[in-house]
């Protein structure tokens, strides 16, 4: 069975824009929110909505001491779930280093849930992320992937480069490995994407091509767990 997810704190590359995923955590005490629409909710290269649209939203609290917490939700459509909704809870700490605080980091715990499901696939995942000069590296780990008592690692590197005012080129590569990847696919694999992002009238917009290097026998082109190459379009609004 394929189970999901990245956390909203790093914006879960699969549901929100790649540009949003590169935004570092807030350092001021405040409550913020975001709503988004995407043509396919992809997590680490794999659709969580059977290739269909997703509506997603989040509420975040961040304190001036670096503490943050929040909740993120999305519709889902997958054989792994007995629920039509995913709700993720997360808590963490953000900090900055260097004379000009140019080197930033965060440590996050995320709890993935599917309200109303008959069989629980809830699980906890930890990650540590680093941010510097447009680069973002994160390492994710769980010892109980999909509540199946197996471990899963995910390493990702993202880069955003501003090509003009309000326009960026965004790149991502991630690697899923460990017993959890074997449980899902029988192999470790890469997911990667390249795209552009901008903002128009306060709405963030992104367009990207996403692909994986899963073997041909594992490529799914329709329905649950769809993982072939695709164009992703996302619009999000923060408040």
From TrEMBL:
Alphabetized, the UniProt keywords read: Signal
| Signal peptide positions on this chain | 1-29
Q: Do you know which InterPro entries this protein is assigned to?
A: CHP02001
Q: Name one Pfam family in it.
A: Gcw_chp
Question: Which superkingdom is the protein from?
Answer: Bacteria
The name under which this protein is listed is TIGR02001 family outer membrane protein
From which lineage does this chain's organism come?
Bacteria, Pseudomonadati, Pseudomonadota, Gammaproteobacteria, Alteromonadales
